[in-house]
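In the previous chapter we treated chains in isolation. Here, by contrast, the input contains two separate entities that must be folded as one system, with a combined length of 798 residues.
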Amino acid sequence: MNAYVTGLTARDSSFVTTANTDQPAVSRVEAYIRAQDFARPTLVIDTEAVARQFAALAQGLGRARIHYAVKANPAPEILRKLHSLGSNFDAASRVELQMCLDAGAAPEQLSFGNTIKRASDIAWAHEQGIDLFAVDAEEEIEKIAANAPGARVYLRIIVDATEAEWPLTRKFGSGRDKALALIAMAKDYGLNPVGLSFHVGSQTRRAAMWAPILDQVAAVWHAAKAEGHELTLLNIGGGFPAFYGREIDAPALYAAEVMRLVQERFGDVPEIMAEPGRGLVAEAGMIAAEVLLVSKKSDDDLHRWVYLDIGRFSGLAETEGEAIRYQFATARDHETTGACILAGPSCDSADVLYEKQPVQLPLGLRAGDKVMIRACGAYTSTYASVGFNGFPPLDVVAI
Amino acid sequence: MNAYVTGLTARDSSFVTTANTDQPAVSRVEAYIRAQDFARPTLVIDTEAVARQFAALAQGLGRARIHYAVKANPAPEILRKLHSLGSNFDAASRVELQMCLDAGAAPEQLSFGNTIKRASDIAWAHEQGIDLFAVDAEEEIEKIAANAPGARVYLRIIVDATEAEWPLTRKFGSGRDKALALIAMAKDYGLNPVGLSFHVGSQTRRAAMWAPILDQVAAVWHAAKAEGHELTLLNIGGGFPAFYGREIDAPALYAAEVMRLVQERFGDVPEIMAEPGRGLVAEAGMIAAEVLLVSKKSDDDLHRWVYLDIGRFSGLAETEGEAIRYQFATARDHETTGACILAGPSCDSADVLYEKQPVQLPLGLRAGDKVMIRACGAYTSTYASVGFNGFPPLDVVAI
């Protein structure tokens, strides 16, 4: 058995079913990284794995339409692959909308989902024929009415704290107490308020965690309908999880259960859209990194420090607060392991990945050793800084 | 009196002496930003202000050599200006070393100050004639001995928690208990261990805060000398502050007082180097940003939310944990102000700048209004992500 496999066998069974049912134990991405040398940290993405995950989610979501959350990873190869499979897209900015159009998407397949939009970008999107916008405040309604007259809008509402691993703040959405007034205002401004959206919280590991959130949204939904607003679109947002070490539901089952919970509360909604990002691409990508230094600060220190050539400012931003816990594999995984503090290469003391909860890595690890970081397909490449400390951004290779 | 001046007059007297003694109340950068329209968030840097600050620090530092910490802002215009003034440089990576060489610096003016270096980058630096390296661990000594035989190295040591505003962790440096053994090891490996370095902590506002740190370093210094190690170089690192709203010592006085504290403890050290980064360039830069949205989540909310077109992932990374508190100016500063939560434009709920301690901004602020962010010359442009959410990196203009 290959040394690289030990990390895989430690995974729980749900992961094995999520991405690799009919695959050999070492994925295509892992085999690729093992066979290559990399001059700098590189994200390798398997577009076939993205396609398999899309199929699994689409199966579970049934009649709900998938709008891939482009911000998770806008690599053109991913956008083209998803477009070829019939995916729609959710974009956060004009640049992302343009990338979707460049990948072949039609304007009616796009949603401008950021609630914070520049007026000139709304006007540009409207000119392109994009006709679906997120909104959560009076001023945003005014901007859309002025720059995309008559457009379809959905109102994003705030839902209360969830069990997600990267929880949302109150940054996005309107309070539920204001929802009906904003829908009425959108109508007064000549817009077409077609429905509601919300976000259950990124990396919501279990479908069952959606239930209390859906209850909150359903209350607003039914109140709006009772007041005569004809809502036809429910946008259930993202939150679909990836495997980072803690058990998650398999994607088709997860999506089907979410849809069952939706059906139970909302009945036959004409249009449902879902915006998986992380849940669609994270597991399809792996980062090839390298150890730069292993050291002990004092002879009686409990833990080593292991420094990689990638850190919080060059792709691993989601380790902030140690929120997302990546899994690591090395060529020494058959050796004895020990706890270590893991840090990035920059001269910034905040560039520490895991310290409160140290990571188990082989004791023999040395400068120059290759380290593979699993499930890095989402929220890595575009988070990388342009060149903090002179380190180049994460390279991306699609296979 | 101009509306923009109100922010300035609220500053304490030490700031006024730091950058603008012989300047009009509105700085060159501020005048430039007021006169222009910007299509995207833009950092405007006044290289003349950098030069004035260099002169002030150099005056205070006396015989200590300034090595500008390039990571603070590697804009070629800044590097060329500082080179023309006789500055030396401290670089964190091969790319930064190359930028210094490109700006005209000689190899002997450069220090490779990152304690975490790729072996091939050490070899490359050695080939260029760069002969001064930071080190804090056995494996790094091995790498330098193998790739830059005979090089001068200084040992970075850990100092205990300081009163700095962006405090350092134990990420960099060796424990003081290991210092003498590492110096001896460097000698055994044929290197030339010339001295010690440390970092008092970024944004250490008062020179007096250096005293207890210098005591710790001096104890190691004198112990090493007592053991027969002939140390000739003391690198006092950075920590020189910029004005972000809390009073700081004026730069020349600050630097002179630090040097007095050093002299008191170390005597006549042959070579002293200082590595100001933030303290040299922060106040010379200002970001031109724009309001994208102002909203209230609920009618009974205490605070508004104000969303800018720049956030934590597009240049304002140092607002993490609300550590660095930037000062803002708008064209409405003569109007009544109120507290608001300030956030960035991305679809990431972590992209909130100030929430625990809200910011006072004019109540009339609206989407489209220009916002100027002061003292942004350091740790902004290179921290910006390559394109998270499709937002372009911070633009940089040097005047």
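The mean pLDDT of chain B is 91. The domain at 48-281 of chain B is CATH 3.20.20.10 (TIM Barrel). Compare these points with the single-chain example from earlier in the chapter.
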